[in-house]
Predict the structure.
Amino acid sequence: MSVTNVTKKSMRILALPLVTASKAPGTSSSGPLSYYHFATPPVHKEGNTKSWPEWATDKASGLWAGLGKAKEGSWQRRTFVYGERLVDRIDFEELALKSLDPSLGPSLTRFGHSKSDIKPEDSPTIPLIYPGQILTSPLSHLQSLLAKRTPKHKRGFYTWMIISPFTAPFMIIPIIPNLPFFFCVWRSWSHYKAYKASSYLEQLLEKGSIVPQDSAELNAIYAAYAPSAPSANEPQQAEDSDSDASSSPRVNNNEHLLLTRDAVPAITAYFDTGPSHASSSSSSLAADLYRAIEQAALRVRNAEPNSGSKPS
């Protein structure tokens, strides 16, 4: 089945391997480090009715955007800049998962209580689009990722929720709001959304609703934009610390980048949801993919024997 014929109104998953699987002795690997993008249908609601989580999210987004428009040098502007840096440090896997709203995907309630209750026309099919020449076992790779992320985000949700009351003393500081409290609440909410999305995807995998679809277009993009793989006998050379992620990949136990930043426009053009969706969908994919490539390159560098410890 051609991926280009997939209905643009349905939920779709895009799997993009970023780093080759580790081949270091004594290490186990479930496959290449990959970024997953989840595309859901646009929301069409009558009137302006919003649920309280949607209202709270929109309100918080508006307030945060307002901080970014503040005068340079003000505490509002400094808070915004530092906050954006914190977002860039959050695992791209978490950011991808929290972007998936299970309410916009296929409903799990219509599956019924047994397989005999499921009608073929009622069983949803969600395409998992991937480059087959790079990622050979997409379903097992996704399942392995979710098995790690689900308990991690559940634990993170409770941890930050428990920490938040201890930020109460900061309320006595005049003028400046209790930023530590809002940060704890935001991190707890972020983990909660990622946990719900991860659990939802696990149920879809269990029901067999996610169907892998090898994409010839993605294979061509990887072939065109892949950086040259380092030779196994080539001595590792020191690189400038300010080098961009789009430069040649770093060596670490035979690990190297599979994509560069130059491939992002081609990928977003291929996966573009079309005029029926908001243009923010493609821009969101591009921004998230740029961040994922940067983090992948950083992880490869930090894992090198002489690279030093990973920043906390």
Notes: The first strand starts at residue 12 and ends at 19. The mean pLDDT is 77.
